[in-house]
TrEMBL record:
InterPro entries, A to Z: Beta/gamma_crystallin (IPR001064), G_crystallin-like (IPR011024)
Membership in a protein family: Belongs to the beta/gamma-crystallin family.
Domain Beta/gamma crystallin 'Greek key' as annotated: residue spans: 82-122, 178-218
The protein's name in its UniProt record: Beta/gamma crystallin 'Greek key' domain-containing protein
Annotated signal sequence range: 1-26
Annotated organism of origin: Hyphomonas atlantica
Length: 221
C-alpha cells in the first residue's frame, strides 16, 4: 500500500487569461469567463491575502505570469473547482505545489509572492472514449515521473489501458478521490498494487511503465 504526499502536475493547452481589480471577496457569478469550458474551472490570483487587492483571472495553463505583470505577486487564490499546480519559476519549473481549494494565504504553501506559473490538474483527452475531464478528478496517471508529461484521468474501471493508448506508459500518479488498484496485465490480472490518496512515482512499487488495467478498490478482491 502506497501513501505519499500531494505533489505536482500535468500540461494543458493555454485557454486564455484576463487581468482586473477585485473586491475583497471573489464572486464567480461576476468574474468567471463565460467562454471558458473545462480545465479546472478557472482561478483568480489575488495580490493580497484573504482574496483582496488587485487580481488576475486565469482560465488555463499560464507558463509565465510576468507577461500579465503578476509575477511573484499572488498572496491568495480563489478556485472554482478542481486542482491547480502553482510553481515558483516560469514554465512550471522550480518548486511546485498542488492547490485543490481556495486559499486565503498562500504562505501556507510557502508560495506567498512566489508564484510564476500555474496550470490546472485535469485531463482534456479523448472524450469519445470516456475521459471527460471530470472536475476534481479521481486518479490521474502521468507518463513521466513527478506528475509530468502526457496524462490521462481515470474515473471508472478500465480493463485495458491500450484502448486509451496508455498501456505500460504510466510513471507517476495523482489521486484526488478514492482508492485504486493498478495491475500489470489487462483485465486486472498479474501483480496488482493499491494506491491511496496523494501523489507519487510508480517506480518504488515496481509499477513504472507496467500498468495495463485499473479499477476502484473497495477492500479485498
Amino acid at each position: 500500500m502506497l501513501k505519499t504526499p500531494f505533489s505536482k502536475s500535468l500540461p494543458l493547452a493555454m485557454l486564455g487569461v484576463a487581468a482586473f481589480a477585485l473586491p475583497a471577496s471573489a464572486d464567480w457569478g461576476r468574474y468567471q469567463d463565460a467562454s471558458y469550458r473545462g480545465g479546472g474551472g478557472g482561478v483568480i490570483l489575488h495580490a493580497d491575502a484573504r482574496f483582496s487587492g488587485a487580481g488576475v483571472r486565469i482560465n488555463g495553463a499560464e507558463p509565465d505570469l510576468s507577461r500579465l505583470r503578476f509575477n511573484d505577486r499572488a498572496s491568495s487564490i480563489t478556485l472554482r473547482s478542481g486542482a491547480w499546480e502553482l510553481c515558483t519559476d516560469a514554465n512550471f519549473r522550480g518548486r511546485c505545489e498542488i492547490v485543490d481549494s481556495s486559499t486565503a494565504r498562500l504562505n501556507a504553501y510557502r508560495l506567498n509572492d512566489n508564484v510564476s506559473s500555474l496550470r490546472p490538474v485535469s485531463y482534456r483527452g479523448d472524450r469519445g472514449k470516456g475521459h471527460r475531464g471530470r472536475r476534481g478528478g479521481e486518479l490521474v496517471l502521468f507518463q513521466d515521473s513527478a506528475q509530468r508529461g502526457q496524462a490521462i484521468e481515470i474515473s471508472h474501471d478500465v480493463a485495458d489501458l491500450s484502448q486509451y493508448r496508455f498501456n505500460d506508459r504510466a510513471s507517476s500518479f495523482l489521486i484526488t478521490g478514492g482508492t485504486w488498484q493498478v495491475c500489470e496485465h489487462a483485465n486486472f490480472r498479474g501483480r496488482c498494487e493499491v494506491l491511496q490518496a496523494g501523489a507519487g512515482d510508480l517506480k518504488p512499487i515496481r509499477m513504472n511503465d507496467n500498468i495495463s488495467s485499473i479499477r476502484a478498490y473497495r477492500g479485498r478482491r
